[in-house]
Amino acid sequence: MKINLEKLCxxxxxxxxxVWLPSENAIIFSDVKGNQMFCWSEGDDVSLWRQNSNYVNxxxxxNEERVVSCxxxxxxxxxxxxxxxxxxxxxKIDGKRFNSPNDVVVRSDGTIWFTDPPYGxxxxxxGYKSESQIIGCYVYCYDPNDNKISIATNDxxxxxxxxxxxxxxxxxxxxxxxxxxxxxxxxELRIYPVQGKTLGAGKHFVTVSPGFPDGFCVDKFxxxxxxxxxxxxxxxxxxKKIHKIAVPERTSNCTFxxxxxxxxxxxxxxxxxxxxxxx
Length: 279
Hints:
Elements: E1 2-9, E2 15-21, E3 26-31, E4 36-41, E5 45-51, E6 56-61, E7 67-71, E8 76-80, E9 86-90, E10 92-93, E11 96-97, E12 104-106, E13 112-115, E14 139-143, E15 148-153, E16 159-164, E17 170-175, E18 188-195, E19 198-199, E20 203-207, E21 216-218, E22 224-228, E23 231-235, E24 241-246, E25 251-257, E26 263-268, E27 271-278
Antiparallel strand pairs: 1-27, 2-3, 3-4, 4-5, 6-7, 7-8, 8-9, 10-11, 12-13, 13-14, 14-15, 16-17, 17-18, 18-19, 18-20, 21-22, 22-23, 23-24, 25-26, 26-27
Domain SMP-30/Gluconolactonase/LRE-like region: 14-269
Binding site for a divalent metal cation: 16, 160, 214
Protein name: Gluconolactonase
């Protein structure tokens, strides 16, 4: 595999949540600690996409190419409409506020799946310091068609990134609880069978090191591109490590984009990178 890594811009304090907008040939990403969002496109370079973003972290596109975002500030899942307005989709379960939704994916049936660790409420650095109203950190499934929310699984300690397999029969979830529990925590990707709007029994898929897994994505062949301390680890669908993309900053997330969808956009600390490669 031949890889060319280039730094595209460095406007952020903590860059996260990259999402590709096909109709605009542009990438949107969050600056969680800066409480803003940026847009980068070829030729136009980087521009401010949203100020006062409510500490948005992860982002995804729905089936109508609207940006769905995890807001630490309002502790919910919002959606940016075509006219630029932002609406809150869901911020509670059984009347209790979420912790701080972190990462999100949208399934082809329109359901929105997201993780809810506490990182936006443990200090004022990435949200607003608050007490948790929920006894744990779960993966949720929200259906905007009927406005129903369900706990997909509670089999995680500190869920972070998540992504579906190409056939959407499996959901991968990052558990980075080693950051909070150095002796007993996990630094792994777990895999769960999708059963409607919930998940079946999960199991360990791969251990991620150095550091721990944050955001990640899956290509059309089922290969997983997962952030770690110093780059992107690439695993095949059987969990075998097949390559690593070294990145010179602490790496947070990645997504595919570009005209042909074959370029990997990587957020890492202050910067947005692009990896172009050939197998």
